[in-house]
From TrEMBL, chain A:
Gene3D superfamilies: 3.30.420.40. It catalyses: glycerol + ATP = sn-glycerol 3-phosphate + ADP + H(+). This is Glycerol kinase. Residues 5-252 form the Carbohydrate kinase FGGY N-terminal domain. It comes from Prauserella shujinwangii. It is an enzyme of class 2 (transferase). Pathway: Polyol metabolism; glycerol degradation via glycerol kinase pathway; sn-glycerol 3-phosphate from glycerol: step 1/1. Its EC number is 2.7.1.30. ATP binds at T13, T14, S15, T267, G311, Q315, G412. PROSITE patterns: FGGY_KINASES_2 (PS00445).
From TrEMBL, chain B:
May be an activator protein for the gylABX operon. Keywords: DNA-binding, Glycerol metabolism, Transcription, Transcription regulation. Pfam families: HTH_IclR, IclR_C. This is Glycerol operon regulatory protein. Residues 5-67 form the HTH iclR-type domain. One of its GO terms (biological process) is glycerol metabolic process. PROSITE patterns: HTH_ICLR, ICLR_ED. Transmembrane segments: none annotated. SMART domains: HTH_ICLR (SM00346). The keyword Membrane does not apply. Residues 68-252 form the IclR-ED domain. SUPFAM superfamilies: GAF domain-like, Winged helix' DNA-binding domain. GO terms for molecular function: DNA binding; DNA-binding transcription factor activity. It comes from Prauserella shujinwangii.
Length: 515, 254
């Protein structure tokens, strides 16, 4: 029987989904299961890796059943996953060492501050492309090694393994303690602070700097590569691709060429631009990361601008202020007025991320007069997402020398027409939404399908991309410049609000330095 | 003839009770006042909460009259929420049918386009969200008229503007067409608004079956219609499936 489908597993922050796609990249079945979020202390966020594995065990057979097919109909499996979330487990039993520490977890705050003062700290970003921050995996591994008695010795002997979620799932799917493959891909490895961007292998200096034993680390593989064949859950499916979720979205949006960029608008937003065959080191506070690596071909790199607060500002407007009953209503409210009335909201709830990295900044509403209504505030909320996008795009253009000709968008906030029009207006380029909403899963499926010849080449995949909507810039240039200048003045007002807890001033280039 | 429905009478009593005094009561207090079992009162409150007629205070757990009651007359489903909830299904319909998709709601005697997905052929198209279409000459509009007798009566009292040779311009013709829509569960227009173009649409329902909008495809007659200008049954099936999927998301039964 011919292989007619490709399977994707999207292991996300709140849920895990299994999706089957047909040859024309149409969705055939979708099965999803949420997992619990554990918040044992302020700033701590954990997942139970066993629960996630059990969810995979349930949803994969269900997805096949719903499509009315079996494993022999599946050409390949691609995995996309929440990035930077860290799990350690016992190689012999498969039992995790406590819960997985999630990417949002900031318990490594102090540790990161301390590491930042050590010799070699200034070398970190040059080697791995990332600033020293609580956001990435290495400090979490270190924290676990420091806080679990006996763990460091077991890790050094290779009895305890490290992985991000894709590594954990592949190890389990390919047999677990009984010969499971311990592998990761370049995109996920590029989020650990431990991989050298040039060699695409673990960097001995960085391992020494963070005190992470090499024996516990997975082998780094290309993004597309047959990592193994499933032996558990549903045996006999080739695992042919892995990508971090944002990298998968870039791939699913078919941003294969340098200068092509996408932004995923959800709780937070992530703008990635393909920069081609050479890593571009950022002079403007962006992250340098691997976009994808197809088999033996050279890796493609990307610049990334993570924006911490976008959809979550809308959530705050709903839950914190109670001015709307559901998120989409913000557009209705914003449309009750013609403009922002001179009001700006800068959502530096826990400092500013790219391109500023000011951990001491705090949010601000500025320009209040008695004229301002909740309608103006709603506009200011949406505009904040637009301007934050503009700042990241400006930084990318400056770093890469490439000017994005358009922006491809996805995520829940793309349902908001006012916002999408505003993004087009402030970027002064067309904004396009594809017909495939599930860009993360689609990217994983594309990569896997490509690896096994289910889809012939990148051009073939490009032809599957269809525009569902497009917003063209309409704002007069003079108005755009004036508004942007106002926004930047508002941003400056947020700087320096939090006072350091004793000691010197916070390091503005160090995002982990949250006070 | 069946007698009054007891649970509706009880629901009315709960609303009257909440309309008195401070207007904030716990489930125990409500049950005691009306001499209902607590479980019964709770079940009715949860249902009333589901339709927005009562709200529960998160901190105290007490119930009060819901904002939806104050705006009973105005449209209760925000159009931007409708778009958000329909986004994925509208995309899927465009991908399956190969045609442009629109979602419409009534606004001041017209169809307001609240969502638009381009035809998936990457030709130059402009977003028509915010555009107004004639109710009596489009498939979307006919769906909205078929399930809203008052709106239909108003439209039929005014002059029915003619856009093409095929536009329905008399009240009896429109009445017959709307009855046919209700029978079939979907509507079509074949060159009734724009020469060479056709549309197929079906109702989007929320809880209780209330029609809150219409979703449909539109495009060239040759593609949407088969022999003798009859709308293609497979395409109509896709449209109805999409409408049902959105309705399910909005809490409609079926
Ligand atoms: N119409 C809208 N206008 C503005 N914001 C919206 C709208 N609809 C949803 N949002 C916001 O978008 C976010 C949800 O988007 P999405 O479901 O893509 O996010 P996510 O939770 O980050 O995704 P995932 O769980 O897949 O990682 C919420 O923060 C919500 O406030």
């Amino acid at each position: 029987m011919a292989h007619r489908y490709v399977m994707a597993i999207d292991q996300g922050t709140t849920s895990t989904r299994c999706i089957l796609f047909d040859q024309r990249a149409r969705l055939v079945s979708v099965v999803q299961r949420e997992h619990q979020q554990h918040f044992p202390k302020p700033g701590w966020v954990e997942h139970d890796a066993v629960e996630i594995w059990r969810n995979v065990d349930r949803i994969v057979p269900r997805a096949l059943r719903e499509a009315g097919i079996d494993a022999s109909d599946v050409a390949a499996l691609g995995i996309a996953n929440q990035r930077e979330t860290t799990v350690l487990w016992d190689r012999h039993t498969g039992t995790p060492v406590g819960h997985a520490l999630v990417w949002q977890d900031t318990r490594t705050d102090e540790l990161v501050r301390e590491l930042g003062q050590r010799p070699g700290a200034e070398e970190v970003q040059r080697r791995c492309g990332l600033p020293l921050s609580t956001y990435f995996s290495a400090p979490r591994v270190r924290w676990l090694l420091d806080h679990t008695p006996g763990l460091r010795e077991r890790a050094a002997r290779g009895d305890v393994l490290f992985g991000t979620m894709e590594t954990w799932l592949i190890w389990n799917l390919t047999g677990g303690p009984d010969g499971g493959a311990h592998v990761t891909d370049v995109t996920n490895a590029s989020r650990t602070l431990l991989m050298n961007l040039g060699t695409l292998d673990w960097d001995p200096e960085l391992l020494a700097f963070f005190g992470v034993p090499r024996a516990m680390l997975p082998e780094i593989r290309p993004s597309t590569d047959v990592h193994g064949t499933t032996r558990r859950v549903v045996p006999g499916i080739r695992i042919a691709a892995t990508l971090g979720d944002q990298h998968a979205a870039l791939f699913g949006q078919t941003c294969f060429a340098p200068g092509e960029a996408k932004c995923t608008y959800g709780t937070g937003s992530f703008l990635l631009m393909n920069t081609g065959a050479e890593p571009v080191h950022s002079g403007h506070g962006l992250l340098t990361t691997v976009a994808f690596k197809l088999g033996d071909e050279p890796a493609r790199y990307a610049l990334e601008g993570p924006i911490a607060i976008t959809g979550s500002l809308v959530q705050w407007f709903r839950d914190g202020l109670g001015l709307i009953r559901n998120a989409p209503e913000i557009e209705t409210l914003a449309r009750t007025v013609a403009d922002n009335g001179g009001c700006y909201i800068v959502p530096a709830f826990s400092g500013l991320f790219a391109p500023y990295w000011r951990s001491e900044a705090r949010g601000i509403i500025v320009g209040l007069t008695s004229y301002i209504t909740k309608g103006h505030l709603a506009r200011a909320v949406l505009e904040a997402t637009g301007w934050q996008t503009r700042e990241v795009v400006d930084a990318m253009n400056a770093d890469s020398g490439l000017a994005a000709a358009n922006l491809k968008v996805d995520g829940g906030m793309t349902a908001d027409n006012l916002l999408m029009q505003f993004v087009a207006d402030v970027l002064d380029v067309p904004v396009m939404r594809p017909m495939h909403a599930e860009t993360v899963s689609l990217g994983a499926a594309y990569a896997a399908g490509l690896a096994v010849g289910f889809w012939p080449d990148l051009e073939g995949l490009r032809r599957n991309w269809h525009r569902a909507a497009q917003w063209l810039p309409q704002m007069p240039a003079a108005r755009r410049e004036e508004e942007y200048a106002n926004w930047r003045r508002a941003v400056e007002l947020t700087f320096g609000w939090m006072r350091p807890r004793g000691g010197g001033p916070p390091d503005p280039r160090n995002p982990g330095d949250k006070n | 003839m069946p007698g009054p429905v007891q649970s509706i009478e009880r629901a009315a009593a709960i609303l009257r009770l909440l309309a008195r005094g401070s207007g904030r009561l716990g489930v125990g207090e409500i049950a005691a006042s009306l001499e209902l079992a607590k479980g019964t009162a709770h079940g009715i409150l949860r249902t009333l909460q589901g339709v927005g007629f009562v709200e529960q205070d998160r901190a105290t757990g007490k119930y009060q009259l819901g904002a939806a009651l104050l705006h009973l007359g105005s449209s209760y489903l925000d159009v931007n929420e409708l778009r958000s909830r329909a986004l994925n299904w509208a995309d899927a319909l465009a991908a399956r049918s190969g045609e442009a998709v629109r979602i419409g709601t009534p606004l001041e005697g017209s169809v307001l386009v609240v969502h638009h997905v381009f035809r998936p052929d990457d030709t130059l198209q402009t977003l028509e969200v915010g555009a107004l279409l004639p109710l009596h000459a489009t498939a979307l509009g006919k769906v909205l008229l078929a399930y809203d007798a008052d709106l239909a009566a108003r439209v039929q009292r005014g002059p029915l503007e003619s856009f093409t040779r095929r536009t329905l311009v008399t009240a009896p013709a429109l009445t017959r067409a709307l009855a046919a829509v209700r029978d079939a569960g979907w509507a079509a227009d074949v060159e009734e608004c724009v020469p060479g173009e056709a549309g197929i649409a079906a109702p989007i329902r929320s809880s209780g079956g209330l029609v809150v909008g219409a979703i449909g495809i539109s495009g060239a007659v040759e593609r949407l219609c088969g022999a003798r200008s009859r709308p293609d049954a497979t395409l109509a099936g896709h449209v109805r499936d999409a409408a049902r999927a959105v309705s399910r998301d909005l809490g409609a039964a079926r």
